[in-house]
Amino acid sequence: MDDLLYLECPCTSFPRSFARDFKETYLYPPPSTLYGFLLSLVGEEDISAHLGVRLAIGILGNDSPISRIVRKQRSHKFVVGGEVKKRVEKYGEGIYPTSQFSKPNFQELLTDVRIALKIDSSNEMASIKLSERVAIALSSPSQILRFGGLSLGESWAMINGIRNYRETDGAIHWLVKDNRGLIGLPIWINRNTSQGTFQRFSLGEYSDQCLVDIIAPILTTTKSKKSSKDK
User: Fold this and answer.
1) FRET label pair with 186: which of 76, 153, 193, 228, CA 20 to 30 Å apart?
2) What is the pLDDT of residues 22-34, one digit of tens each?
């Protein structure tokens, strides 16, 4: 596969969705994280710009070792609706006092993360596909307008680099969609509700089952039925 990308990151973390004070990490990079990484690579700020793209994720080498550290982290309750207005009136827009919202917590880190990535843009609706924009970013970076460092996962987790995959990089273990698989990873995270869409995987050889559709779920609302007393 000549269109594969190779990505390596010396140290990163993919916090599990249910992690609280102890920031556990997924052992493998979630599709949602890699989609965000690619948007950052090409300088795209609209998260919905390339919905419909399909990603296949491969792991090179052995599983990344997990380290545990203590670091100060911001921790605050996710609020919606009227609570947002109260928070802004009390503290200010986007302000979280260190004395109340920062404290030392344990966090898991992954080291020596090496990834193979395949991009399939055949189902995209964008006029310029994500695969095309990535190719431009790698061949002619001066044509890409972006800002900030290129990181994988959290903003501090800078990558060593991204390029085309070479056979000398080693064998690839692919994440294969498997409803009975032991690897559960988020495909999409709703920024407004923090709820996610998940897929289960197992490790195996490459096939079409490795391609994951990056699609935002359709949100539906249901009206509660009135009780007999209200009728």
Assistant:
1) 76
2) 788 999 999 999 9
